[in-house]
Amino acid sequence: MPLPACIAPATLETVIGGLAHQFRKGAGGDMDAAHFAASQMLAAYHAETPDELTLAGEIVSLQLHTLEALSDAADPDLSLNKVLRLRVSAVSLSRESHKARRELARLQRVRLNGVTPQAVEAAAPEPAAAAPNLDDAVALIEEVREAIQTVRKSGGQSWSQSFQKRQTAKRIADTLKKKQAEYAASAGVQAVMVGA
What we know:
The protein has 196 residues and is mainly alpha-helical.
């Protein structure tokens, strides 16, 4: 299903171009194929307004980041701590994706009923459902990326494992210094005794 012509080409290209980068690896670096995949994913949401299109783009992006986090969590070399962090991040991303889906469905119901969103909000006795907070979703995506990078840089060790190794190395070094001082002191005493 093609994307609607009533959305400005610049808006379409911005949303599709942003998603295409997430499809680049799967498309073998071919940006045309990545653009096609992104537009195909967006078309499945039947967005007909810029707001609907950006929500659809957010949904697709969150779903892809969720899959990336779950994929990275499947690495058998990761510590349990890292696996759990990635899984928790995936659950949070999935939750944000579901919120965006509900908001998209609400916008589409309003559009299909021929009522403006302002009229729906004015007639509602309670406040309308809050739109998904894009800043929270972006922050969550950044946290997942940082967790993935931390895991890759640390060789799969958790912070506590790395800290324990540093502490063990420090204790060994301190013990060696103490033994060296004791040895030097005893060697000095022996030298004094031999000289006397």
